[in-house]
Amino acid sequence: MSILDRFRLDGKRLFITGGSRGLGREMALAIADAGADVVLVGRELESLEATAADIRKLGREATPLVGDVGRVEECEAICRRVLDEHGPVDILINNVGGRRINVPLEEQSLEQWRQILDLNLTSAFLCMKVIGGAMVARRKGGRVINVASISGMIANRSIGGRSYETAKAAVIQLTRAAAADWAPHGVTVNAICPGGFMTAPNVRWASEHPEVIANFREQIPAGDFGQPEDLGPLAVYLASDASRYMTGAALVIDGGYTLW
């Protein structure tokens, strides 16, 4: 057997949140290219359909679902629908998230705090509870990949909305705790911690707060931001048998930003 065969995902099914654009889209495409069928959820039908069409061009099944997993009640309902109508799920990627606000800690409202934690942390918890829990109960193993951030390890410069750093740090610890619990069941749980990537939200930040983005870029040893497709190979590795013995890891992909 070729070593590359261990990266194949034929016969597997992925469920990914925020899978229609940016990092989520590229991870979904990469995993489909490795052989898996994909169920993807997002808030906009047009971008979901576009990504689903590109997945089908790779010869895989693609099921787009419109929904907002940042809303607690909607998130759990979506997960149960996925299992009922499209299960079983072999690979879960909790990708949805974002900072969304630039508000100093002392001015941030409790409502804003909860919204950002629900978007980044509670959504991951609920998907793990329902989808990951089904993997454990099924007794055939599985892969959970949580998209955290280097912001869960550091405080970003010149920006507010510290609920984002807090939520991503919690995602990393949730990853470790669940990995310990689920390892005996053959379900691995790992986190990807991206640095600066020029996704649509960061393009918007660049137009609204160019000094923040320029300062960030200057601190990257590799000299520039990453591209969303850079995450595809790492996602395939974590989803495949090649990462069988890795669990509880938080893998940084940031062009060296956190080395300073």
> Order of strands across the widest beta sheet?
3-2-1-4-5-6-7
Give me the CATH fold name. Rossmann fold
Radius of gyration: 17 Å
Number of E strands: 7
Helix count, per DSSP? 8
Notes on the protein architecture:
The chain is built from 8 helices and 7 strands; from the N terminus they run βαβαβαβαβαβαααβ. By secondary structure, it is an alpha/beta fold. Helix 5 links the parallel strand 5 (142-147) and strand 6 (187-194). It is globular.
Would you summarize the structure shown here?
This protein has helices at 22-33, 45-57, 72-86, 110-138, 163-182, 200-208, 210-218, 232-239; strands at 13-17, 37-42, 62-66, 91-94, 142-147, 187-194, 250-253.
Task: Outline the secondary-structure elements.
Elements: E1 13-17, H1 22-33, E2 37-42, H2 45-57, E3 62-66, H3 72-86, E4 91-94, H4 110-138, E5 142-147, H5 163-182, E6 187-194, H6 200-208, H7 210-218, H8 232-239, E7 250-253
Parallel strand pairs: 1-2, 1-4, 2-3, 4-5, 5-6, 6-7
Helix pairs in contact: 1-8, 3-4, 4-5, 6-7
